[in-house]
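Data deposition worksheet. Section B asks for the primary sequence of the deposited chain exactly as it was used as input, without tags or linkers unless they were present during the calculation. Section C holds the resulting structure in token form. Section D is free text for depositor observations; keep each observation to a single sentence. Incomplete worksheets are returned to the depositor.
Section A, Depositor: J.P.
Section B:
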Amino acid sequence: MSTLTDKLPKLPAVKLPEVLDLDEAKKPAFAAVGVVDLYVEQVKEIPAEAKKLQAKLEAARTARTEKLKAVPAQLKALPTQVKGLRNELEGRVSKAQSTATAYYGKLAVRGEKLVGQIRRQPATEAAIAEGKAAVRKAEAAATSAKKATKSAEKAAEGAANKLG
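Section C:
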């Protein structure tokens, strides 16, 4: 009986050099074995990590379920909360309006006081008097201009009658 190995060609015998350090040659193989061992060690931790994640997911799901159970009660309470918020908002608006009205009144009093002070100043009284005098002069000038226009019109009519 022949075996498969009998049919293979014979390889020449390899003689290793004498300077080859076998310990150094083994290092890459040992490093590869070390990597595999590290991966195996980490893979062994996966089931425990998966259980931890599953427990966290279960706790989150339970919490979410409890929150969902509370939603109908929260929805029933919502109209009451909205009414309360509306009342609170109306109160705030009313307070803001009254504050603004009071502030507006204070500003009006302050402005009236300042205008009174300005009107009583001698320079303001003099400016008002000058303004009144200027108005009178402007009215007189307008009257004079109207009279001059009428005179010129009559003179033009008289000259036109003489010519023609």
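Section D:
The chain has a mean pLDDT of 86.
The chain has three helices and no strands.
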